[in-house]
Amino acid sequence: MSGFDTTEHPHRRFNALKGEWVLVSPHRSKRPWQGQQEAPEGEQRPAYDPSCYLCPGNTRANGEINPAYDSTFVFTNDFAALQEQVPVGGVNEGGLLRAEAESGVCRVICFSPRHDLTLPEMTTPAIRQVVDLWVDEFRTLGARPDINYVQIFENKGQMMGCSNPHPHGQIWAQRTVPMEPAKESTEQLAYFQQHQRTLLADYLAIELEKQERIVIENAHFVVLVPFWAVWPFETLLIARRPVQDITQLTDEEREALADIIRRLTIRYDNLFQISFPYSAGLHQRPTDGEDHPEWHLHMHFYPPLLRSATVRKFMVGYEMLGDPQRDITPEFSAGRLRDMSEVHYKQVQ
Ligand code: ZN
Asked: Distance, CA 286 to ligand 1 centroid (Å)?
C-alpha cells in the first residue's frame, strides 16, 4: 500500500503542546454525516431566579448576600476545593507513598446578573467586562507569594456536571502548577530553548499557511481545531502576539478576545441548536515570579458532544488503557464549525 492519507488511514498524531499522542481513525467515520438535529432544549430560564445562589440579591449557603451587581461579580467559593490555611507537611514512604500539603483559593465569577444568558448570548461589551475581571483576578492572585499558578475556567452545561445554569466561571489559584499546564510548560520550554520562538507562534504560522483547521480569526486572535485535537469539536484559541498572560494584552486585544469568544461560542451553539456544553479555560504562565518567555497565552475549549445534542464522546476502553482516540478528523470538525453562522439560532426566526 502506498500514499499515506490522513483522511483515509488510521494514524497517530503528536500533541506538540503536551508531548502526548492521539489515535485518529478517519475510516470509521466514512458513513455519511447524520446531520440530524435534536429538538432544541425547551428549557426557558427566567432572567432572575429567586432560588439561584448566583443571582443578584440572593443569599448563598453560607448566609452571605450577593450584591445587586449589574455586570460581573466575583467571590471566594463557599465550598472550595482548595483552602488558604493548610499546615505545611507531607508523606513520603520509600518514594512510593507520596503526598504533600496543597493550598490555594477558589473564586467564582458571575458573567452576568441575567440568569437566562450564556456567553454567546451576551454582547461583546458585556463579555469584555468578564475579560477585564479575569485580568484583575490573574494580576491580584498571581502576585501572591503563596500562589504559583492561576487557572481560569468555565464548566458549561449539565453534561459537564455544572450544577447551576447561571452564567459563571471559576478561578482556582494554588501553590503548585497542575499537571496539564505543567506538561505544556515542559514542551514550550524545550521548544523555546531550541528555537528562541514560542512553540505556539510557530504552530500558528503553519496553521495560517495551511488553512485546513482554522475556524475564525480577528486582528489579534485565531481559533482553530488543533492538529492533535482529542475531543470531536475541541478548539484552541491562540493570541497572535506571543504574550505570556492576559495582563499583557492591550486594550484593543482585550476587546478582540471578547469578540472572538462571542463568535466562537455562537458557532458552538448553532452546531446542534442547543446551549453547547464544554469545559474551557485559559492557559498562561505560572505566577512563580519568573518571566516564562516560552509561554504563549491560549485558551482551550473541550466540548463533549460528538454527532448531535444527545450523542457524546466517552473516554473509555482503549482510551483509559492506551491513548485517546477520535473518528472524525480535526479537519472535518473545523469545516463544520467554519460553516456555522455567527447569528445565534435563538435570534433567527
Ligand atoms: Zn494549554
From this structure: 12
Spacing, Cα 228 to ligand 1 middle (Å): 12
CA of 336 to the centre of ligand 1 (A): 23
119: Cβ–Cβ under 8 A, 6 or more apart, which residues?
A: 111, 127, 130, 154, 156, 167, 261, 262, 265
| pTM flag (> 0.85) | yes
Rounded distance from Cα 117 to ligand 1 centre (Å): 27
Å from CA of 18 to ligand 1 middle: 8
Active-site positions? 168
Taking the CA atoms of residue 95, residue 96, residue 101 and residue 107 in that order, the dihedral angle to the nearest 10 degrees is 130
Q: Within the chain, where are the H helices?
A: 124-142, 179-195, 199-210, 251-272, 318-321, 330-339
Q: How many CB atoms lie within 10 A of CB 230?
A: 22
Rounded to whole angstroms, the Cα distance separating 172 from 108 reads 9
Q: What letter represents residue 55's amino acid?
A: C
Q: Amino acid identity of 327?
A: D
Answer whether 155's CB lies under 8 Å from 170's CB.
yes
From CA 260, how far away is CA 218, in angstroms rounded? 7
- pLDDT tens digits in sequence order for the chain, 349 residues long: 578 888 888 889 999 999 999 999 888 765 554 444 444 454 688 999 999 999 999 999 889 999 999 999 999 987 789 999 888 889 999 999 999 999 999 999 999 999 999 999 999 999 999 999 999 999 999 999 999 999 999 999 888 888 789 999 999 999 999 999 999 999 999 999 999 999 999 999 999 999 999 999 999 999 999 999 999 999 999 999 999 999 999 999 999 999 999 999 999 999 999 999 999 999 999 999 999 999 999 999 999 998 888 888 888 899 999 999 998 999 999 999 999 999 999 998 6
- Fill in the DSSP letter of residue 83: -
CATH (one of 3.30.70.360, 3.90.45.10, 3.90.600.10, 3.30.428.10) for 44-347: 3.30.428.10
Using the mean position of ligand 1's atoms as its centre, give its distance from the Cα of residue 248 in Å. Answer: 17
Q: Decide: 53 and 163 in contact? Cβ < 8 Å.
A: no
